User: Which sequence fits this backbone?
């Protein structure tokens, strides 16, 4: 039984021009362990992963694999060294079919097939083009492709984000077994629940340095958060005062959705959204929530039903109609919302400066002031503000919200705004959403993380299979209740959730 | 079967269009026969190679504006080398010119990869450089070509056992085209290199992460483009017997056929067969319009409209298929 690490990286540093992404990072992974790599946004997690997998080269540092110094110059070299990553975004070539993708990386087909089945996808056609495969399945295929070559060290970057519960469960199970089989897994996740259930140790990064390696034991979360943030923070449940809500109850709802229908994806959805509230939307992956948000944002036309804004019916032909009605959409995919090569200022100013009817020069002084106050309010890290693409994910998300605060939208539709961003920024976003509601704005908030509902929402709308399951007041929306509802079971039903989870493919597993 | 149709649907449609056009030609000109088909094949030959050159690069996610200039340079080089030389000397000239195309193409790729200047700029610059070089080699149309080379694309393929009436429909030019393209394309399509070319065109990041040597693959794609362009240059010399230093209308024609042939300009999608069939379609349309005695200027307009209509129709069908 050896205790020498499989992978031992130390003193790793990487500079982008004047900005140091990594100063002195180290990571040591033992055989047979699942090792969490944690850190706030911009702490250097992604940079370290890219260096370990050969996507970029470090400026300094030493990487030992099984005690041997290796120079990992390319993804192919990392692969040969036994290091295989599964990135946050799918890595299959979109225009090639699955089989060609396997051929491209020299992945054996039979083990791949076995892993795919193991991971809960029984009916994959290898001749399907990657572009036509749903995102969640693609991520699982990425994992299966990595597992099929039996790597010594598997790097999983936010593997379970964007996965529906049943697939995520399978993935975690398989990852756990990798550890038991004497291989090592480096696991990057923002979900403490998963890390507690899965990992043996955690390395915490802050500002490009490794600030601690801890054993995962019950109650370690506080310590990790403390390491990540550098100062001790009080675990705040975002406070919602009932009085604040009662005080501003207006005469009529801000938005009334009645019997809304979108193609085959969404049918007969009715609910109200009031000023001064955050209404949560909870649904499994692909239950029609995308279409609901798109219809409210004016980017697709509903095929039936009505949407009323302030009591008068509206028909949105274009997002501009929704924006004029004061409804702003913050998409889950930040690259859908931002002009990535442009500056933070331009991105924030876009909605209020870019209207075609405003002829003549932009009032720069006014624009700067508005933008500066939005940046201030959201505490956006503006060190790299020349190009939004150089900001970290959390800061990009803040920019997408900041622009609508600067444009003074009355209703904000937030689609999974906290996906893949760190705990600290998440807290700030929760607080911001509550503040917006406090100022009489209304927020519709879709989240894939059920624990966020209790922190942020006043009410929860649950959708399953394109239909409204239930609307909960937050007091009753604990995670088990939401989970049941998300699987299509209204309150009070006591049937076994697992069997009803996915009626189309009974073999696709159960939920926790 | 459904997979085959989904993949080859576009090419099948183009073939159908081609057949319709042949029938139309026969209706317009009842005397249209094997001889006319032979001259169509000869006329198509340089276009087809230009299209092949463009296709490889476009699939790899790039564009090559230097195709026509490359053809001109290789054509005049071959013509000036063969002028007054022995028949056997041509045996050396052909591989030399092909190698020249390959190297110049690789140079295109190398410049793009190393300098990181956009491909459209590098190949535009290369267009001017090669054009100038072609004029240095031959100031005016001239030179010569070996007789056996000229004979290679004139006449028909005599296949023993087949009656002459069928032989007559198998022009040598068509055979040369098919053989040359297959020799390069089929091994490529089956190799990891071929996959890599599709991969970098489809998503450079994903290809990089899959361990594809992106830079090397791009250089090879441009080198292959140069090779096909050199074949096109030789085809020009073979059919005219001389070399002309001013590039022909092959650049825009190649882009047109690539689009019509179902290759996505963004890269990663399509094959070689589609664009080649598309060249025949475009040439035959021109023949038909000429036979109908339509004003040549109107002909150009009609060609443009046909292209837009076909591509729009294809996109419409694809969208309907998805729903």
Assistant:
């Amino acid at each position: 039984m050896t205790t020498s690490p499989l992978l031992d990286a130390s003193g790793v540093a990487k500079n982008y021009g004047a900005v140091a992404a990594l100063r002195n990072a180290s990571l040591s992974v033992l055989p047979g362990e699942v090792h969490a790599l944690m850190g706030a946004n911009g702490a250097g997690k992604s940079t370290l992963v890219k260096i370990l997998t050969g996507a970029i080269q470090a400026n300094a540092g030493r990487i030992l694999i099984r005690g041997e110094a290796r120079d990992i110059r390319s993804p192919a070299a990392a692969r040969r060294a036994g290091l295989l990553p599964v990135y946050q975004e799918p890595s299959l070539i979109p225009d090639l079919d699955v089989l060609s993708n396997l051929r491209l990386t020299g992945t054996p087909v039979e083990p791949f097939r076995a892993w795919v089945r193991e991971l809960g996808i029984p009916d994959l056609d290898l001749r399907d083009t990657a572009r036509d495969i749903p995102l969640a399945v693609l991520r699982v295929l990425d994992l299966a492709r990595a597992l099929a070559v039996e790597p010594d060290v598997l790097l999983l970057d936010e593997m379970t984000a964007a996965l529906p519960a049943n697939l995520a469960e399978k993935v975690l199970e398989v990852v756990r077994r990798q550890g038991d089989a004497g291989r090592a897994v480096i696991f990057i996740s923002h979900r403490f629940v998963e890390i507690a259930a899965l990992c043996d140790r955690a390395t915490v990064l802050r500002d490009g340095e490794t600030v601690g390696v801890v054993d995962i034991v019950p109650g370690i979360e506080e310590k990790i958060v403390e390491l990540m943030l550098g100062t001790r923070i009080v675990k705040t449940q975002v406070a919602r005062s009932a009085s604040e809500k009662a005080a501003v109850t207006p005469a009529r709802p801000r938005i009334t959705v009645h019997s809304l229908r979108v193609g085959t994806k969404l049918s007969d959805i009715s609910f109200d959204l009031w000023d001064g509230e955050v209404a949560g939307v909870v649904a499994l992956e692909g239950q029609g929530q995308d279409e609901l948000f798109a219809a409210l944002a004016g980017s697709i036309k509903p095929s039936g039903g009505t949407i009323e804004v302030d009591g008068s019916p509206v028909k949105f032909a274009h997002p501009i109609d929704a924006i004029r009605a004061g409804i702003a959409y913050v998409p889950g995919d930040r690259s859908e919302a931002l002009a990535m090569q442009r500056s933070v200022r331009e991105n924030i100013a876009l909605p209020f400066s870019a209207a075609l009817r405003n002829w003549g020069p932009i009032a720069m002084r006014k624009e700067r002031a508005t933008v500066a106050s939005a940046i201030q309010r959201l505490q956006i890290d503006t060190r790299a503000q020349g190009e939004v693409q150089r900001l970290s994910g959390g800061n990009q998300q803040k920019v997408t919200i900041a622009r609508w605060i600067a444009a003074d939208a009355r209703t904000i539709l937030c689609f999974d705004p906290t996906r893949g961003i760190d705990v600290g920024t998440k807290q700030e976003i929760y607080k911001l959403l509550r503040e917006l509601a406090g100022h009489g704005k209304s927020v519709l908030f879709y989240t894939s993380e059920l624990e966020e509902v209790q922190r942020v929402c006043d009410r929860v709308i649950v959708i399953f299979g394109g239909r409204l399951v239930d609307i909960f007041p937050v007091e009753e929306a604990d995670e088990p209740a939401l989970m049941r509802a998300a699987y299509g079971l209204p309150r009070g039903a006591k049937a076994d959730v697992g069997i009803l989870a996915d009626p189309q493919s009974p073999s696709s597993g159960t939920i926790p | 079967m459904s997979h085959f149709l989904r993949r080859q649907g576009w090419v099948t449609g183009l073939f159908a269009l081609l057949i319709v056009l042949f029938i139309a030609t026969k209706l317009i000109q009842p005397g249209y026969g094997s001889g006319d088909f032979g001259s169509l094949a000869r006329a198509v030959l340089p276009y087809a190679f230009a299209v092949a050159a463009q296709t490889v690069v476009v699939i790899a996610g790039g564009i090559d504006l230097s195709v026509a200039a490359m053809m001109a340079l290789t054509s005049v080089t071959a013509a000036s080398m063969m002028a007054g030389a022995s028949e056997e000397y041509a045996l050396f000239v052909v591989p030399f010119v092909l190698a020249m195309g390959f190297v110049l193409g690789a140079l295109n790729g190398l410049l793009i990869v190393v300098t990181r200047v956009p491909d459209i700029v590098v190949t535009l610059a290369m267009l001017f450089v090669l054009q100038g070089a072609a004029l240095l080699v031959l100031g005016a149309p001239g030179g010569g070509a070996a007789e056996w080379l000229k004979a290679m694309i004139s006449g028909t393929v005599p296949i023993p056992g087949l009656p002459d009436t069928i032989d007559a429909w198998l022009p040598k030019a068509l055979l040369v085209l098919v053989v040359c393209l297959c020799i390069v394309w089929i091994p490529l399509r089956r190799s990891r290199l071929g996959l890599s070319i599709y991969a970098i065109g489809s998503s450079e990041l994903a290809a990089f992460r899959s361990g594809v040597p992106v830079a090397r693959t791009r250089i090879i794609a441009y080198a292959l483009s140069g090779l096909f362009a050199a074949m096109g240059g030789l085809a020009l010399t073979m059919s005219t017997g001389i070399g002309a230093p001013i590039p022909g209308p092959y650049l825009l024609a190649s882009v047109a056929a690539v689009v019509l042939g179902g290759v996505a300009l963004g890269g990663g999608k399509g094959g070689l067969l589609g664009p080649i069939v598309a060249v025949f379609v475009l040439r035959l349309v021109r023949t038909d319009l000429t036979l109908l005695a339509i004003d040549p200027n109107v002909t150009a307009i009609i060609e443009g409209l046909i292209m837009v209509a076909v591509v729009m129709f294809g996109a419409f069908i694809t969208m309907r298929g998805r729903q």
Notes: Residues 156 and 170 of chain B are 6 Å apart (CA to CA).
